[in-house]
Amino acid sequence: MPSSTFDEILDLEEKFYDDGYQQGLADGVKAGRIEGRTFGLEKGFEKYLESGKLHGKSLVWVNRMPCFPAKFSAQDANQQSKPDLPANDQPQKLEKLPSLPDNQRLAKHLKVLYALAESESLSTENTEEAVSDFDDRLKRAQAKAKIVERMVGEAKDHNEGAENVVKNNEGNIEDASLRNTKG
């Protein structure tokens, strides 16, 4: 028997290993790109959503300030949202939010918050510089929003529900309000 026959058989395992490795590498690159794109879209959406929330808050606060002209009046809202009201139906009275104090420092913070959070000047390009700029503006806008929240007395309590959290006998944290309902 020629020795080349056995060499081909012994090389078969190495060939299958190399083929499997190359196929796995190609599949891994493809799956990694898909997973990376999905993750990037999720994170981008979360960041843009947060930016939109901050922009909405800034609009509400600006419209509550007496030193800024009203952007959208209640009368305009009734006319635009219900143009074809029957004669016997009365439009509902819209309640106004209370005005904020006429404070120049607060007005300055609101202008900066509005400028940081408005979406038209935010870049949505997928470059290192654009993403870094977006993240920087978002962090600065979040900090300004916290300052404004404290100034207008709408600061969120970050310890909400902390008084209901206790440790059970196993050392796990559970909600005390749920513990009281257990029988």
From TrEMBL:
<dbReference type="InterPro" id="IPR019191">
    <property type="entry name" value="Essential_protein_Yae1_N"/>
</dbReference>
<feature type="region of interest" description="Disordered">
    <location>
        <begin position="74"/>
        <end position="101"/>
    </location>
</feature>
<comment type="similarity">
    <text>Belongs to the LTO1 family.</text>
</comment>
<feature type="region of interest" description="Disordered">
    <location>
        <begin position="154"/>
        <end position="183"/>
    </location>
</feature>
<dbReference type="Pfam" id="PF09811">
    <property type="entry name" value="Yae1_N"/>
</dbReference>
<protein>
    <recommendedName>
        <fullName>Essential protein Yae1 N-terminal domain-containing protein</fullName>
    </recommendedName>
</protein>
<feature type="domain" description="Essential protein Yae1 N-terminal">
    <location>
        <begin position="20"/>
        <end position="57"/>
    </location>
</feature>
<dbReference type="InterPro" id="IPR052436">
    <property type="entry name" value="LTO1_adapter"/>
</dbReference>
